[in-house]
Design a protein that fits this description.
- The protein is mainly α.
- It has one domain.
- The chain has seven helices and two strands, in the order H-H-E-E-H-H-H-H-H.
- Helix 3 runs antiparallel to helix 4, helix 4 (92-119) packs across helix 5 (131-147) and helix 5 (131-147) crosses helix 7.
Length: 193
């Protein structure tokens, strides 16, 4: 394998994961307008199930933002790539579901992260290193693997493609930090982490 082929694997792995990276940021924006909390204010064992930071508007707004981003990416790729692969997404109609599973998986992963943080007694916005940066990654990959195991295997596990997954895991901490600082400076987040 030459360097160009290796860089292509890394690029495609990052490119196709963008629909999973947008939903949590978009959920913050949409969630500001959401009055109905996902846990409806209910508690479990004396602690909120998810907390005030998780609303239905944020959940669906975030997930659908990821899907829209993915459709835009497929449109861009179709201009430059007439092979029908759409730069890693595969056949258009056959893999629009990948966009949905990546996007909804990301917000579900973040929701699981909030659930775990509440069980640990951490308040909304409290630091949880590792969990904060990777809950949506695990959620997106697990949900997508449940419905499209072949796609996940081909894109992130088979042969040198594992490097795309490792690259994602390495850069995600920095990307998460940078996006949170931007959100904090824009007044969308109360904490810069």
């Amino acid at each position: 394998m030459d360097a160009v082929e290796f860089l292509k694997i890394i690029f495609v792995g990052l490119w196709v994961f963008l629909p999973a990276m947008l939903p949590n940021s978009a959920a913050v924006v949409f969630g500001k307008h959401g009055k109905t909390k996902m846990d409806f204010g209910k508690t479990w064992r004396g602690k909120r199930i998810f907390g005030d930071g998780k609303s239905w508007a944020g959940f669906f707004g975030g997930a659908f933002s990821g899907i829209v981003l993915g459709l835009i990416q497929i449109g861009i790729a179709s201009i430059f790539d007439d092979s029908g692969d759409y730069w890693g997404f595969g056949d258009f109609w056959g893999n629009v579901g990948v966009l949905a599973t990546l996007s909804f998986g990301a917000v579900l992963g973040d929701l699981c992260g909030a659930f775990i943080k509440r069980r640990l007694g951490l308040e909304r916005g409290a630091k949880a290193p590792g969990l904060d940066q990777y809950d949506f990654v695990v959620g997106a990959l697990c949900v997508t693997a449940l419905f499209f195991p072949g796609w996940v295997y081909d894109t992130y596990i088979e042969g040198w493609h594992i490097c795309a997954l490792l690259f994602l895991l390495l850069i995600m901490f920095g990307i998460h930090r940078m996006v949170n600082i931007i959100g904090y400076r824009m007044g969308l987040k109360k904490e810069p982490w």
